[in-house]
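Narrative summary of target 7.
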Amino acid sequence: MRHRLFILGALAVLALTAAAAALAGNLTATATVSGTAGVSLGLPGDPSVSDTLDGTDQTVSYAPVLGVVDARGSGGGWNMTISATTFSDGLGHTLAPGTVSAVAQACHAGSSCTAPTNAIGYPLGVNGSAAKFFNAAANTGLGKVDVTPTVDVLIPGNSFAGTYTSTVTLAVATGP
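Modeled conformation, tokenized:
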């Protein structure tokens, strides 16, 4: 009798195990990732520089941190342009718009990115026509990237004292 109960118990455990094994199966998980329509640019506050004339030519610089977001997911690359008007004090005195002497780039804090591969050389003169000053080659520059151009402004030793302003236009476009 014990032997029969033992055999029946063993058969019950075997049947439950077989039933549990028969319930196993596979799932196919799918992740759909969508991109945005374009590349965007975030601008910081207006930069300013100051200088004290001493009779020699001097150079002052400003370096705005520009936020580029490429969330298209295509790896199509992008480029940035800069143009600027001549600095003017409103009294007929002017300063040249400047020169982009260098550009730094880094992934935006708290985000992953594919670092851009830039093929533009410096220095690059800034004037009233839009000129490419930075680019992200194909398959680079994806995610959030901070791009920081250093713009050098020459203050000639014979400049007039005053407050000068210039309108700097920055843009980002698709394609390297």
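The longest strand covers residues 143-155.
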